[in-house]
């Protein structure tokens, strides 16, 4: 039967001394039981919305919420609404923000840091114009800035060659690991069940799915299932998703700002993205004294999330330092304080996957975050829960049919 986990057992997980509860199917006449596999941003928010809808929910994760190998791990994720013509993601980002703020207000330390987000480019291209048009059509706050105004307002950045910028004052950073762990802890307090163990690939030749076998030896019986496994989606459904959802290696670096210089603090410096002729770099101010963050937003080599080398490379560091020294001259010579190797979990075009398994009618597939998904977690979870319960219409862009086997990223 179901047992509520304590915070201690949640943190210990399957590898510690705590004994996990047995998980059984809901009894006849009781609320349906849903098993959600994957406790990242997508899975945890889906479990949250299902629980709030009155379902009995078991949330399962192999390594723990926002663990170091997960796409939802790490320190920070950007919230922003600029998506060019893709108004669907602009709306989802704005609609998700109140839920993140509510979660932040409940946490012991901030989850949402409202430092604003600045996008800038060497030309006033379609992406800039369409982002501005979408925001104005939806009556959402945004400021169009030229190079001179950006240099005046953000003196920590060298805007040489920059002519166009968009500033979104209401957005900022999400403290990723803390956010997911706080959400899962709240889920458990509100009556959900969390189990830490890997789910083994289910049979897909017969349906509907009735149970999952876990690496711990448990069997999880449920009426419906959600798989939100991030970069592991292609490993648990290799034939269906192996060619369609793929993980790529991504490296991020943090540098120490000058001592006593307030220009790199989130009260002054925004999150930012330099379109750099389509070769995008992005970063954050000095959040919680970890250093100023830099990353190159391109698909690195394809990797296995369980076995990829987590050591940062000299070549990626050199590339970031060259960019940093050009665009942030006040940080020339700054000490490297931290480096991380993580991964993007990509669909072929950057659109999310929220659709039913073609052979298992009671299995919903949720993934394809494609480097921009974290901020949308609350709305992805709401939509996924609605799809599972039959209360929302499918979004064609999130369908499995639109996920090809060839990379052609269209969402930025």
Mean of residue pLDDT values: 92
The largest β sheet comes out as: 8 strands, mixed
The number of helices is 10
Proportion of residues in extended strands: 15-25%
Distance between the termini: 45 Å
Strand tally, please? 19
Secondary structure layout:
Elements: H1 7-12, E1 33-37, H2 41-52, E2 56-61, E3 76-78, H3 87-106, E4 112-113, E5 117-121, H4 126-137, E6 143-145, H5 147-153, E7 164-168, E8 173-175, H6 176-189, E9 193-196, E10 211-213, E11 219-221, E12 224-227, H7 233-236, H8 238-241, E13 246-255, E14 271-274, E15 281-284, E16 292-296, H9 314-327, E17 336-346, E18 353-356, E19 363-367, H10 377-389
List keywords for this structure.
2 domains; FAD/NAD(P)-binding domain; 8-stranded mixed β-sheet; 22% strand; disordered N terminus; 412 residues; D-Amino Acid Oxidase, Chain A, domain 2
In a nutshell, what does this entry contain?
The protein has 412 residues and is of the alpha/beta class. The chain has two domains: 7-70 and 177-245 and 349-402, 3-Layer(bba) Sandwich (FAD/NAD(P)-binding domain), CATH 3.50.50.60; 114-172 and 246-345, D-Amino Acid Oxidase, Chain A, domain 2.
What does this structure look like?
The protein folds into 2 domains: 7-70 and 177-245 and 349-402, FAD/NAD(P)-binding domain; 114-172 and 246-345, 2-Layer Sandwich (D-Amino Acid Oxidase, Chain A, domain 2). It contains 10 helices and 19 strands. It has helices spanning 7-12, 41-52, 87-106, 126-137, 147-153, 176-189, 233-236, 238-241, 314-327, 377-389, and strands at residues 33-37, 56-61, 76-78, 112-113, 117-121, 143-145, 164-168, 173-175, 193-196, 211-213, 219-221, 224-227, 246-255, 271-274, 281-284, 292-296, 336-346, 353-356, 363-367. The longest helix has 20 residues, at 87-106. It is globular.
